[in-house]
Amino acid sequence: MGTFKSHALPDMTTQPTHVRNTRARPLRKRWSIAAWIALIPMTLTVLFAYLGTMLWTARVSLSNSRTFPSNDFVGFTQYVRLFHNDRWLVSLQHIAIYGVCFIFACLAIGMLLAIFIDQRVVAEGVLRTVFLYPYAMSFVATGLVWQWILNPELGAQSLLRKMGFTHARFDWIVDQDWVIYTIVIATVWQAAGLVMALMLAGLRGIDDELWKAARIDGIPRWRVYASIVIPMLGPSISTAFVLLFVAVVKLFDAVVAMTQGGPGTASEVPAKFIMDYLFGRANIGLASAASIVLLATVLAILAPFLYARSRNASRKEM
């Protein structure tokens, strides 16, 4: 019988390294090209749907457009009109008050909830779900729920008076001096769970050896959190801050659902001002100018913040 010759594939591990690398390069190149092709739809979306609409809005803000866009160039006239509009100035005051209260309360409550759950409490999974569930609701649903709760005739005030507290007052939603804080309460209730989830993820990433060392040295637990843990949660806190700040700028649904900007203009916010002038008063030139001012404010605050964060990250890598 003749001798049998094996035709098995050669063992790649026995081949020289430069041969294996040469064969792997075409495959990597094909995958790289496929990845760039897959990015084309998102790139086009960013260029046309985002950057394109921003440039178009900026162009309209320099015109005297009313119901429809026009080519009647008027320079920065719309911006001058905007900052002479009392309603716009009031909305800026309200969003500043709301933003400070909302961000501070969300960070504080979210941090406390995360620390509480991080103690390995019983039914931890249930508690995480309960605290995070409000964030799954829309701002409209949240606004309607809290509108009923805060209604002087139907909600908490009525319940307290039925319980015998006849002089109890909780009518903030119809009080011009306090109505903006009712929106803070409603939106903090919704967003604090998200902050809790971000902080809890950061806490679970801290080495247990840190706590053992702190116990051995006799350092109080609160001091460990204040001096060590919270600084270590810098990335989580910055991420939460960015998300909350964007939510502040976008505030619209909860205001419309709860107060419609009232009483009067006591809870007017920039996003509602823009929507009213865009659709209600058919003044898209002024609405576009307000949108650009809001965008510039966001960029002015977030851009240095994100730049500093990325620079710190690059330093750590070095």
Describe the structure in brief.
The protein has 318 residues and is mostly helical. Helix content is 71%, strand content 0%. The chain contains 13 helices and no strands.
Q: Describe it for me?
A:
The chain is mainly α. It has a domain at 94-268: Orthogonal Bundle (MetI-like fold), CATH 1.10.3720. It contains 13 helices and no strands. The chain is flat. The termini are far apart. Mean pLDDT is 85; it is low at 1-9. Its main location: membrane. It is a multi-pass membrane protein.
Query: What portion of residues belong to β-strands?
Result: under 5%
Low-confidence stretches: 1-9
Mean pLDDT across residues: 85
For the termini, the CA-CA separation is: 67 Å
Structural class computed from helices and strand pairing: mainly alpha
* Portion of residues within helices: over 70%
CATH C-level name of the domain at 94-268: Mainly Alpha
Q: What is the element string, with H for helices and E for strands?
A: HHHHHHHHHHHHH
CATH topology of the domain at 94-268: MetI-like fold
Number of helices: 13
Biggest pleated-sheet summary: none
